[in-house]
Amino acid sequence: MELTAGNLLELFLYSASMWWVIIPAVFIGIIMGAIPGFAAHNTIIMLLPLTLAFEADIALTFMVALYCASHLGGGVPAILLNIPGTGGAAATTLDGYPMSRKGLASRALALSFVASILAGLITSALTLFVLPYLSQVGFYIRSVEMVVVMLFGLALIAAIAAQDMIKGLIAGAFGLMLGAMGADHIYATPRGTFGILELFDGIPLVPALIGLFAISEALIMLEEKSIAAGHSKSVTPSWREALHNIGDAFKHWFLIIWTSVLGLVIGVMPGAGASIAAFVAYQQARVFSKTPEKFGTGHEQGVVAPEAANNGVTTGTLVPLLAIGIPGGSTAAVMMIVLQFHGVPFGPRLFMQNPMLAYGVIMSMFVAYIFMLITLFPLTRYLSRITIVANYYMAPTIVAFTLVGAFVPRSFIADLTIAVGFGLIGYVARKTGYHVAAILIGVILGPLLERSFLLSMRISGGDPMIFFSSNIGNVLWVLLFAMLLASPVLKLLKKRRSKGDIY
Amino acid sequence: MSEENKPARKRVGADLLIPVVGTLYAGYYVYSVWDFPPEAQRSGFFLAALLVGLCVILFLRTALLHFAGRAEWEFSSLLGPREGRMGRIGFVALIFAYLLVVRHAGFTLTTFAFLFAGSLLGGIGSLRKAAIFAFVTAISGWLFFIVILGTRFPRGPFENLVTMVVATWN
Amino acid sequence: MTKRLITRAPGLIGRRSFLRTSGAAVAATGLGGFTGVRKAFAQDYPSRNIDIVIPTGEGGGADRDARAFTSVWGKHLNTNFQFGYFPGAAGQVGYEFYMDREPDAYSLLFANLGPEIIMLALQDTGIEVGRDIVFIQQTLSEPMAVWVGPNSPIRTLEELVELGRSRPITVATSRLPHPASIGMLALGEAMGMEIVLVPYGGGNPTAMAAITQETDCAALPVTNTIVLDDQAHVLGLFADENVAPEGTDNAPTVNDALGTSIPELTSSRAWGVHRAAYDAHPDRIAALVESMEATLADPDYTAAVEAAGVPTVFIDPGDEARAMASAAATTELARRYRDLLTGS
């Protein structure tokens, strides 16, 4: 179907007329996204009785708005507390939290919100126009290509490890080893699980995330009075400063555009998701940055890139669902169930029977991001105060509430223990110079990489040349090696050029 | 810390904990897949070799430092600064107590007790402040997680009592 | 045409009614903690919510079918239903968790009698059908299909076999312990082809593999292909006859097309309960079965199944004896192909 300007306008107005469902959805989404463990799909499942009672287009608008907003919310605790609300925000902690420690929480939040919202607007607008082409991406991405995409994400381990390479690599390998826990992908026999049933399906990501980041952080927090101790004056900006922070964030427009498109493309690949996109975007932003050495110390680009990417994913992840009828991620899967309940088919049939609903989904996203603009000012100005709340309040509250988050996705009591176990691992890791983000990258990407690898090998009958058998795969390999080489080469060049220079 | 101002003696010891745990787990993992079909073993063997290999490099590096007299062995950095150390150890113990108690006492009571004791261990310094904080937070948590969201988090005497009271309204 | 045309089912909430009744809607969902309470005094059983254990992930076929069933079941059994998803180890995780639940007939298992029974037969779970779990009602039953993506050069079963005689055929399946996998192995055996099963761990990724032509074909329960419409071209069915010709490109049965005699391979959805609950609470089981039968006979259920994209010919009510017999037949089949399915 061709989209005309009239069509688009009408779609826009129709979506905007849904303000009464978008506003509460955005509100709920930001809050739930900020609580580790809840994220979009768990929240939607919990609210199913409500969503199922709505008409299909209202339900869909509600879910879409909530989904987008949850990605915006996920960055908030990542920046303020070093606790990513969703896996997609794990990379945001790397520079967001150091900014908070310097009393720049408000500025970091402004960057994160502006990056998220702009990325959402750009990618949803782009998707409206190129949906038929974008949906083709799904047709060309197979296990072989996925292996290379995962390796892009894994490369971040090496980047994080820059300070002490061997320790960084050990952290990553430890994460990968833990990620290999659980039933194998071919015969479904449990491996390395200590016979614990709750681990048969592998390491549950949310409890691992909560343990590594939230619980370990709470233990360390108690060593100090508050997160931004010593910076309490600068923490709450004036309205003018808030405006200024927001304005400054727009200076990163170019980075936002390309990392959001990167997120969009990764989102379209079935099985990839926000965390992979954010890791890859962070790594790429670092490679192409003029100041890669500043990444990890509270660098603005390190907040912008992952946040733009994980919001780019939100649009992308719906593309396989809309175009092919196969959900690309867990949130899309829940959306599919709701629409099936209403008798609305996804996939090509949706475009035949109800093209405006299909495009309407993307337009609802666009409109939801516009509504999120409204939240920008108050959130930027006030949320940063959390960093000056006394830690004797924060630490116990974080533990008590995030443990509920660890429980929610699977409703297993054992997940609380798993979270605490990872909390101790995270604590020891932080105290002894191992990066928890590197461990998490291993835990998240390890099983995905293993699966794609094994499937490819099985298809090829054990011939490793399959990994170089596709054109797209080969292009990705070249890009991967170029990226790995670019870092040291650029460094060398810069060293030569700036001999004698002082920062 | 940057390369230039590296101290003459490097503190080692505590940083061997993660590699040791990793090596032990890698060993266990290999043992657990020993009789499996090759496809289920392959990646485990590869990762175990990678992890153990990296750990061995670190062990060697530490040994070299030790024999060069440049290693300063210590484990106390694990526990953080001396000030408030007992409180923090108590806080960890409290988390374990939470795990044991929560399935019986339910969300609200456990959370209240945890926040009360936790804020005291964290140094809040006033019983009254701790009690008010714990009460308000636990009740808010109950409203949000249990009542509004209806999560299946374990229910205890408090939740059951409320359910009974609500039931009598009908 | 610019309105988003959605057939509005009576009782669904639109904008006006939302603003009018939002309080009630919030109460209905928001007070999740209390939802079981209100109905508590109306009857003895069920006096609280019924927990449904689904041994696969959300958004899969089991989720779809269970939701279609409970959307109507609530009319006949005065309670609410809570879903829990326990994927992992080919269903083993779900079954073991189900067994850990209190055997009081408030926890039900929504089983897939094909793959899960095979899993129980092959994996060391210690769970035995009949001794530990009783399937009290079968709801749907569908045959397995072998199919290809829209751009695949393979258009018929004969072409697949011809190709399979020159090189190994890669087949995307949901998992190895699955009737569709067994069907393909049996087909390979009968026609002298080498079949390489590639387990993608779920219906959705399996379908994607066939559509992208990562594998030569896919073997799945036939509904998956019907839902996909023209993204899937069905080559053949492991059934005695094709009862849903419209959705399946009028595909032949494998036996008709190739002259083989492969047994019918189906996956049937069925409700399971603990044996202990079955023995201790015959009254509750009776209430469950009675309301399930009423649901299956309700035209609303037929409509709900159709709305979910499942052909209504697959509605296949079966009593306990039938469900248990179907489980026993599948166990037998799994034992025959044990070695190929376990890699031993």
Largest sheet of chain A: 2 strands, antiparallel
Please tally the β strands of chain B and state the result.
2
Structural class of chain A: mainly alpha
Shape of chain B: flat
Structural class of chain B: mainly alpha
Q: Whole-number radius of gyration of chain A?
A: 22 Å
Helix coverage percent of chain A: over 70%
Order of helices and strands of chain A: HHHHHHHHHEEHHHHHHHHHHHHH
Instruction: List the total number of helices of chain B.
Output: 5
Fraction of residues in H or I helices of chain B: over 70%
Our Rg estimate of chain B from Cα atoms comes to 25 Å
Strand arrangement, largest sheet of chain B?
1-2
Shape of chain A: globular
Largest interface: A-C, 73 and 73 residues
Mean pLDDT across every amino acid position of chain A:
86
> How much strand content do the residues of chain B show?
under 5%
Indicate the multimeric state. heterotrimer
Mean pLDDT over the residues of chain B: 89
How would you write the strand order of the largest sheet of chain A?
1-2
How many domains make up the 3D coordinates of chain A?
1
> What's the end-to-end separation of chain B, in Å?
66 Å
What attributes does this structure have?
heterotrimer; A: 503 residues; mainly alpha; two-stranded antiparallel ribbon; C: 344 residues; alpha/beta; D-Maltodextrin-Binding Protein, domain 2; 2 domains; 10-stranded mixed sheet; 10 strands; 42% helix; disordered N terminus
Verbal overview:
The complex is a heterotrimer of chains A (503), B (170) and C (344). With 503 residues, chain A is mostly helical. Chain A has one domain. Chain A has 22 helices and two strands. A two-stranded antiparallel ribbon of chain A has the order 1-2. In chain A, helix 1 crosses helix 18 and helix 9 packs across helix 21. The N terminus of chain B is likely disordered. Chain B is 70% helix and 5% strand. The N and C termini of chain B lie far apart (66 Å). In chain B, strands 1-2 form a two-stranded parallel ribbon. Chain B is mainly alpha-helical. Chain C is an alpha/beta fold. Chain C has two domains: 172 residues, 3-Layer(aba) Sandwich (D-Maltodextrin-Binding Protein, domain 2), CATH 3.40.190.150; 116 residues, Periplasmic binding protein-like II (D-Maltodextrin-Binding Protein, domain 2, 3-Layer(aba) Sandwich). Chain C is 42% helix and 19% strand. Chain C has 14 helices and ten strands. Chain C starts with 14 loop residues before the first helix and ends with a helix. The N terminus of chain C is likely disordered. Chains A and C meet through helix 1, helix 3, helix 4, helix 5 and helix 7 of A and helix 1, helix 2, strand 2, helix 3 and strand 6 of C.
